[in-house]
Design a protein that fits this description.
Low-confidence stretches: none
Order of helices and strands: EEEHEHEE
Number of domains: 1
Helix content: 10-25%
Radius of gyration: 14 Å
CATH class: Alpha Beta
Number of strands: 6
Distance between the termini: 26 Å
């Protein structure tokens, strides 16, 4: 079993971890916070923050030769569950059909004061 680290200067990593790791056709994407890759700034507005995180995940998947339809599971961590409707609305635009399985939980705090974090698992060769 070979472990392939997926990395690029196109997306942020803030610690001793890999943005994504591929093992046996599975891509495990570390939790992404809403960082604008161009400026390095955290996006606070929940709608734009959600959009930025999912765009960062798209970039990671592209590095692996995949797209959002390859995602089979996501987990969303929210600082405020009251943001759930806005996150859900924005999230849905990235998964127009056959969305992945998902968990959403409220947490007390996230790195760099981010309003949310999203992690994902994707699979190569998903039949559509």
């Amino acid at each position: 079993m070979k472990k392939n680290i997926i990395s690029s200067g196109k997306f942020p990593v803030f610690g001793p971890y890999s943005a994504a790791v591929e093992v046996n056709g599975f891509i495990f994407i570390s939790g992404q916070i809403p960082v604008d890759p161009a400026s390095g700034e955290i996006i606070d507005d929940i709608k734009n923050a959600t959009r930025q995180i999912l765009a960062n995940i798209q970039t990671i998947l592209k590095e692996a030769g995949l797209d959002m339809s390859s995602i089979v599971k996501t987990t969303i961590y929210l600082k405020s569950i009251a943001d759930f409707p806005v996150v859900n609305e924005t999230y849905a635009t990235f998964f127009p059909q056959d969305p992945p399985a998902r968990s959403t939980v409220e947490v007390s705090a996230l790195p760099k004061g981010a309003p949310l974090e999203i992690e994902a698992i994707a699979v190569k060769n998903v039949l559509k």
